[in-house]
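Hi V.,

Quick status before I head out on leave. The structure for the redesign project is tokenized and pasted below; the design run finished overnight.
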């Protein structure tokens, strides 16, 4: 069984680092932690073209 403090430490390490995921096997137990990527920024819709009459 994995110690809860150890698991929290792994989560914190992944969260604070530049890595996206971590997988560790310990005592027959495998833990995989993945960061959820931030949502892609939404681009603003282009303003409609103005019609100029001469």
């Amino acid at each position: 069984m994995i110690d809860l403090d150890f698991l929290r430490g792994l989560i914190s390490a992944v969260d604070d680092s530049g890595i996206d995921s971590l997988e560790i096997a310990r005592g027959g137990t495998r833990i995989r932690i993945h960061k959820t990527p931030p949502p892609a920024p939404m681009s603003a819709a282009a303003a409609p073209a103005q019609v100029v009459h001469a």
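Above is the designed sequence. The mean pLDDT is 85.

G. will cover questions while I'm gone.

Best,
W.
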